[in-house]
UniProtKB/TrEMBL annotation:
The keyword Protein transport does not apply. One of its GO terms (molecular function) is metal ion binding. Residues 312-343, 347-376 form the 4Fe-4S ferredoxin-type domain. It comes from the Bacteria. InterPro entries: 4Fe4S_Fe-S-bd, 4Fe4S_Fe_S_CS, DUF362, PSI_iron-sulfur_center. This is Ferredoxin. Pfam families: DUF362, Fer4_7. SUPFAM superfamilies: 4Fe-4S ferredoxins (SSF54862). PROSITE patterns: 4FE4S_FER_1, 4FE4S_FER_2. It comes from Clostridium acidisoli DSM 12555. Keywords: 4Fe-4S, Iron, Iron-sulfur, Metal-binding. Ferredoxins are iron-sulfur proteins that transfer electrons in a wide variety of metabolic reactions. The keyword Metal-binding applies.
Length: 385
């Protein structure tokens, strides 16, 4: 049975966060647990979530106070700590500086590493993909500690401990994965294989201020007062989705794939929750990105076909759109599925939905939150809205 520490933390005071994290590690086994997690002379990589060049303190990205609290603890077990990411858009170093993490890192002697340098590796016994091009830094680290935010996600329903390692795929290669794997199930298989390649060691999920609604960038901050910690990434994510309203954890694509492939613990009976009780920490009226009612047919191909028919469409909120064309720039499809038309004296995006793969990169990376997802009539008829 996998152990997960569920903690209540009500603010971003770094001393308070550090205290809570130490409580979590104590629940998981204390000093002996940490010594096993971070062996002597280990090279430790901290993997935050940058997404893009975002202002410090934003619920979109890893909070600098959480990062600092983690650094304080890890420094007691290793003097060789680095951090890095490859955001979906924007310069990585600028993202690190804007987020406030660079300033923290410099104070503590933590080195910034760019994820542009990559290596070609082979994964034994993959779910789907055997050969990989990934960033060298996380692959070569002895210990990878992921520091995700708890957020909604239009394609994957939710993003957290497993999804955060997509940042280990260098730069523009992310677009290629979206094109290759347009459905959430196969994308989930890829993400699980990616975490096997990276050998992600531990997750500290920040849900003190989470994001609901139009996530992972343009949703609404939601106070949840929650930190979730554990070695098993799927156990951490399973606990998180239960807190935001997904009572059936198998309705989340990545958890369903993990369960079916026995990649990691997913079901509540497989997970021992230490600290707070899930029932006491559940967030009322959390606005989900997508309700995940499952329709299961015997044929997987039929499941995929129905999923493609019921997946929501990206649509523009005209009054918010500034015509920056970022949506077209980040669209992974060639030729682009987004064109631009004049309407009410503005230039706004228009989608060719027949060619759209519903990766929602446009919605995810829109700088003004001008793109949302809208359910189709069929999904409403089937009760999937």
């Amino acid at each position: 049975m996998e152990k997960v520490a569920l903690l209540k933390c009500t603010d971003y005071d770094v001393d308070n966060i550090e205290k809570k994290l130490r409580e979590g590690f104590e629940l998981l086994g204390g000093d002996s647990f940490l010594k096993e997690l971070i062996p002597e002379n280990s090279k430790v990589l901290l993997k935050p979530n940058f997404l893009s060049v975002i202002e410090k303190g934003s619920p979109v990205i890893t909070h600098y106070a959480v990062f600092e609290a983690v650094v304080r603890i890890v420094k007691e077990y290793s003097s060789n700590i680095v951090f890095g990411d490859s955001p979906g858009s924007g310069d990585t170093k600028k993202a690190a500086e804007k987020s406030g993490l660079m300033e923290v890192a410099e104070r503590y002697g933590v080195r910034f590493v760019d994820f542009n340098d990559q290596t070609h590796v082979e994964l034994k016994n993959p779910i789907m993909y055997k050969f990989w091009n990934i960033a060298k830094a996380p692959y070569e680290a002895d210990v990878v500690i992921t520091l995700p935010k708890l957020k909604t996600h239009a394609m994957m329903y939710y993003t957290g401990a497993v999804k955060n390692q997509f940042g280990c795929v260098p730069g523009s290669q992310k677009a290629a994965w979206h094109t290759k794997l347009p459905d959430a199930v196969n994308f989930s298989k890829m993400l699980l294989d990616l975490n096997s390649v990276v050998k992600t060691s531990f997750a500290i999920l920040d849900g003190i201020i989470a994001m609901e609604g139009n996530g992972p960038r343009n949703g609404t901050p939601k106070k949840m007062d929650t930190i979730i910690m554990g070695k098993c990434l799927t156990a951490v994510d399973s606990t998180a989705v239960r807190l935001i309203g997904y009572d059936n954890v198998l309705s989340i694509p990545i958890l369903k794939v993990a369960h079916d492939t026995k990649w990691g613990a997913v079901m509540p009976e497989e997970i021992e929750i230490l600290g707070e009780k899930v029932e006491n920490m559940k967030c009322k009226n959390f606005k989900l990105s997508r309700n995940a009612k499952v329709i299961n047919f015997v044929s997987p191909s039929l499941n995929n076909f129905v999923a493609s028919l019921t997946a929501p469409n990206p649509v523009v909120i005209e009054e918010k759109c500034i015509g920056c064309r970022k949506c077209s720039e980040v669209c992974p499809e060639k030729p682009k599925v987004i064109s631009f038309v004049k309407h009410n004296n503005k230039v706004i995006p228009k989608w060719n939905y027949s060619n759209c793969i519903r990766c929602f990169c446009c919605q995810e990376l829109c700088p003004k939150g001008a793109i949302i997802t809208k359910n189709k009539q069929l999904s409403k008829m089937l009760g999937l809205k």
